[in-house]
Amino acid sequence: MNAAPPDEMVDGRGHVRPHWRGILAAFSDLPPSLTAEAAPRGSAVIEAARRLDRAFEDEGVGALLPGAGRAGRAWRCDPVPLVLPAGEFAALAAGLAQRARLLEALLLDFYGPQRLLAEGLVPPALVFANPAFLRPCRSAAHPPQAPLLHTYAADLIRAPDGRWHVLADRTSRAAGIGHAQENRRMLGRVLPNLFRGQQVTPLRPFFDFWQDSLQRLAPPKAQNGSDNAAVALLTPGVHHPLWFEHVLLASALSCALVEPGDLTVRGGALFLKTLKGLQPVDVLLRRVDGRNLDPLEFGGPQGGLGGVPGLLDAMRNGAVRIVNAPGCGMVEAPALGPFLPALAERLLGERLALPAVESHWLAQPEALAMLRRAPADWTIRPAFDGALAAQPLAQLSDGALAGQLARIAERPQDYVAVRDIPPSVAPSAVGDGLAPRPVVLRLFLVQEGGQWRAMPGGLARSPEPGEGLAARLPRQGTAKDVWVLSEDGTQITGPAALPLPPLPIRRAAGALPSRVADNLFWLGRYVERLEGAARLMRAVLARLDRGPLLPRELAELDALAAALRHAGLAEAEDLPNAAAHSALQAALWRALREGGTVAWLTGEIGRLVESVRDRLTGDMHTLFSLPLRAIQLQAAAPPRGLAGLEDILGSILRYCAGVAGAAAENMVRAGGYAFLDLGRRVERGQTIAAQLGFALDQPASRIEGGLRLALELCDSVITYRSRYLGVLQPAPALDLVLADPGNPRGLGYQLAALRRRLTDLEGGDEAGLLPAVEALIDTVDAIPRALLAAGDQAQAAARLAPRIAALEADMAAISDAIARRFFALLPPAQRLGVEPAAEPAVLFWGAA
Amino acid sequence: MRWRIRHATAYRYAEPVDIATHMLHLSPRALPQQQVLWDRVACAPEPARVASDIDHFGNRVTWLFLDRPHARFEVVAEAEIEVAFPPPPPVGASLPWEEVARAAARDAGAAEFTLPSPLLPEHAGARDYVAQSFWPGRPLLAGLLDLNARIRRDFTFRAGVTSIGTTVGQLLAQRAGVCQDFSQLMICGLRGLGLPARYVSGYIRTRPPPGGAARLGADQSHAWVGAWLGPALGWIDLDPTNDLVVQEEHVVLGWGRDFNDISPLRGIILGGGQHALEVSVDLSPA
Fold first, then answer.
1. Subunit contact A840:B105, Cβ cutoff 8 A
2. B53 and B171 in one domain?
3. Is A426 helix (H, G, I), strand (E, B) or coil?
4. Is there a single domain that holds both residue B46 and residue B185?
5. Cα angle for residues A185, A190, A195 (degrees, 5° grid)
6. Among A250-254, A266-270, A486-490, B122-126, which is the least confidently predicted range?
7. Which residues form the Transglutaminase-like domain (chain B) (predicted)?
8. What is the mean predicted confidence (pLDDT) over B261-279?
């Protein structure tokens, strides 16, 4: 019943279309195999696909989140782009620009005088039953502040008649634009040869244009005092499925990446909470649903507390421009589609240039009867939520179809019927060669001063078989880069030669948001805690490896087991006895596996690395996250005895060293690095204090063993031997691990580093932080001196254990003081109404 | 009739509130039948910012922003109002209810109030209860007056047994509640029949006139129902708590789809711990 889908590459007579010849030639020029191994025929494309997969995996595009189960890539990128000739793209861009103008006009009416309702051109239910119509964004007294739409995206398919048809409008957030850019970047990096001799329009000028247009959206009374507007991209945070795209976009547009908790409204203006105080924000590029922007105005008495209280007031006040304006999503409603041609004539005086896939709102008379006559011709979409999946009726069994039709007949106003037409097909890398795959095209537009400009590219994707088209971007799928070819080679020049207006000088990234500092601090702590755990476990392992233990070694193992328990790496019943160490070995495995302390740490580190991703270079991100995933996989494998444990602990220690080295060598000292290092020093100080406490918890007769263990745990055996030629005495040993500011594995060094960082940071001297650190330095300095003065060093050292263990609490107090000083710890938010609240809900903020 | 209103609200917090944002629907809206002679909103401590606007429904909204720590927050809204509600049209003048429902779906001003809303989702029980007053072809106003009287008869006014979160279903089960519950039942049921109904927030006379019966729901804000009689006759206000057609003992603050749209006060505070609330409303002839 449906005509065969058209082929993007091959015309009706079996000839390759001219605009595909270049890319086909480029693929045939690729060496058949880029590796030395023999490969099957057609393997150039497959090899390219494999390399792209690997590159995306290395970048960790599929976010690494707590629970290793979710590791893996969310999206593949096909090596074969979708190619569009310049003329065809220009027509699409013009058609979509017209559509964007129409949707803007609709929004201005719906959020303004609502004349279209009074005139009967739009059924009132399409506005008032639409959950994306946000009443707090409309005033009965004055029109909204244009423009409402700043970015617009549309999904298109090429129908059997050969013309592109609009399938869905995206007016809320235009998701996918960052992915499109990333696909292009990766394709260029991994397969540069593909682009050779091709006239592919570059994307960068579009992002420059977008960046400038965001600047110009700043309210005139921007309180900045400079010509530069502060632009921020608002993301729901690291748990959002499109987090990575938000990171990419913020970087492409050179704007701050912020979460609702980073922002506060004061005096009708919006501010970012940074270490240097409140910094104004003039333009907010919103990636958060409008309903989650301001808890004061959205959500009833039981509503959530997410968002920024007062943000809508700041917007109405003209102090901040939010794009797209909250509420724009309402014109995504599929039920509006059938009315658009008439509305274009009425509002623009124009006919729609670009056809849309035929659709009918089933509340309209006759529509239901039409659907009943040939249900298999139609796909059903919800009337309002354009992000929900569409359901092709042809896929339903007879029974299911009858049930669905009955549901529709009961509430026809909730559904839209969209004609089920197969999209065109384009070549994709499948199996061991190229195969035609259906393709849906998403194009993106940005406007400035009423002029819409389309990104010369886009996000094409191959829907999975049976996937209802027109829904939100799925979590997984196969994407394609979109190439817009220029017919005129002179157009393809570097961005520098394009007649762009001079770019304004932009402020550097500027002050560090408090939340980012908080996350970096905890990242530093957790990486250090992971390293400490691995060192301790390895020390235990070395003793399990041996045969029967001497009494001295058993005493050491007791101390180590106590330290393990203290660190949450073992339970009381795991404690060793002379006969069996198997319980301890099992405990070490447990700590590594799901639910264990080490597994928890790697999950938290993964989450924190993701959440500070916009502060890391791509290489650093790879270095911070990729080995972590390998460790998680290793730990999840079946137990392989002591050797297996040894391997994993080795991986962990290499990872921690890699992170420390990369951070020290690559991060600018001011700002972020300081907090990463503060976290590391505080944590290491606590670990040293705790472990020394256990090591020295010995009777005076055994103190020598305790000292040996202390040196081992602080990785200071060699240093001690070279200084003191193996004569083990309490005062010099404790000087090395407690007081010596030159030993990076000793406590004194951590305290000296803390003092240095806090002195560098503005405000470190406040809140009594520096004095507290200095006092602690004096305390640890005094310990070896007192030992020297004591008559019997062994007796004196044996009494020291509790005092040293208490230093752990002192370090913890410094950690708390850092958090209080630098990370805005907010009191819990709660909702007030005309009735006393039951239990105040708590708004968590920050990392820990 | 001329009224003087004083509506005072005080929150006391167990711990200081660092930052507070409040949204108020406490300023009466001007209507053909209601003239606002003067009004003011005063608050303590002095807010850092005050903003006001007209909302989607045409109600007056005020926002207050406080950014200094405070342990107590007080708002006093005062106004002087002249009300003169026209008498209801004769029952026979209103259209059969089915015709009004058909017209409502197309009417830009009324259609919104035929739809379910966040606090008032569709409820078959409410629809069935209301439908008993609307047999085929019955003039809408006759049905409305009957319904108004039935609710007064079938339900008991009892403060403290319901809250903002009480649903229509719970009310139907327990048969007791306050003005808000009765209004919600009526609105929900009318919408179930496709008839426009809105939630009206305001006040009712505190002290009865000599010899008159005391009115219920006087100690706090009052709520009742606006019902649409069709394009020609427009809206009429009915108070199911007192089985009254609203005339001159009520003062309108504003209206919305349900309580959420027109809540007199709402806010988000940071800090505060537990809080205590005191409200006093005084409506007296001026």
1. no
2. no
3. strand
4. no
5. 70
6. A486-490
7. 171-242
8. 90
Chain A residues in contact with B260 (beta carbon < 8 A): 300-301
The yes-or-no verdict on residue A556 having pLDDT over 80 is: yes
Name residue A604's amino acid: E
Q: CA B250, CA B34: separation in Å to the nearest integer?
A: 10
Whether B257 is covered by a domain: the verdict is: no
- B100 and B79 in a single domain? The answer is no
Q: What are the backbone angles phi and psi of residue A473, rounded to the nearest 5°?
A: -60, 130
| Whether residue B193 sits in one domain with residue B98 | yes
Residues B75 and B174 in one domain: no
Give the pLDDT band (50/70/90) at residue B274.
confident
Q: Is A85 on the interface with B (CB under 8 A)?
A: no
The DSSP result for B61-118, as a single string, is EEEEEE-S-EEEEEEEEEEEEEE-PPPPPPGGGSPBHHHHHHHHHH-TTTGGGGS-BT
Q: Residue A822 — pLDDT band, cuts 50, 70, 90? A: confident
**Max alpha carbon distance in chain A (Å)?**
104
Question: What is the number of domains present in chain B?
Answer: 2
Task: Specify which of A29-43, A143-157, A616-630 reaches the highest per-range mean pLDDT.
Answer: A143-157
Q: Do B221 and A834 touch (CB under 8 A)?
A: yes
Count of Cβ atoms closer than 10 Å to residue A848 Cβ? 15
Residues B97, B70 share a domain: no
Shared domain check, B163 and B117: yes
A830 vs B57, B108, B272: nearest CB? B272
**Do B122 and B228 belong to one domain?**
yes
User: Mean pLDDT over residues A489-509, rounded?
Assistant: 42
At A40 the pLDDT is 44
pLDDT at A819 over 90: no
Examine residue B146 and state whether it is found in any structural domain, yes or no: yes
Give pLDDT, residue B88: 92
At A465, the pLDDT band (50, 70, 90 cuts) reads: confident
Farthest-apart Cα atoms in chain B, separation: 61
Question: Smallest Cβ distance to B63: which of A140, A313, A831?
Answer: A313
Mean pLDDT throughout A446-458?
94
List all residues of chain A from 343 to 372 with a beta carbon under 8 Å from chain B. Answer: none
Question: Is A829 part of the contact surface with chain B (CB cutoff 8 Å)?
Answer: yes
In SS3 terms, A39-60 reads as: CCCCHHHHHHHHHHHHHHHHHC
In a domain, B114, yes or no: yes
Q: Could you tell me if residue B253 is inside a domain?
A: no
Q: Tell me which residue of A443, A445, A446, A486 sits closest to A461, measured CA to CA.
A: A443
Residues of B in contact with A301 (CB under 8 A): 164-165, 260, 263, 266
The CATH number of residue B9's host domain is: 2.60.40.2250
Question: Band of the pLDDT at A825, cuts 50, 70, 90?
Answer: low
Test B48 with A267 for CB contact under 8 angstroms. yes
- Give the Cα-Cα-Cα angle A445, A449, A452 (nearest 5 degrees): 20
Cα of A308 to nearest chain B Cα, Å: 10
Chain A residue whose CA is closest to B266:
A833
Query: Considering CB atoms only, which of A125, A834, A837 is closest to B115?
Result: A125
Q: Which residue of A has its CA nearest to B279?
A: A834
- Are A368 and A362 a contacting pair, CB within 8 Å? yes
b/e map B186-202, b = 16+ CB within 10 Å = bbbbbbbbbbbbbbbbb
Spatial contact of A686 and A811, defined as CB atoms under 8 Å apart: yes
Q: How confident is the model at residue A470 (pLDDT cuts 50, 70, 90)?
A: low
Q: Which chain A residue shows the shortest CA-CA distance from B270?
A: A829
Supply the range of the domain harboring residue B137.
91-247
Task: Identify which of A347, A348, A346, A322 has the alpha carbon closest to the alpha carbon of residue A145.
Answer: A322
Q: Rounded to whole angstroms, how far apart are CA atoms B40 and B4?
A: 12
> Would an 8 Å CB–CB cutoff place A278 in contact with chain B?
no
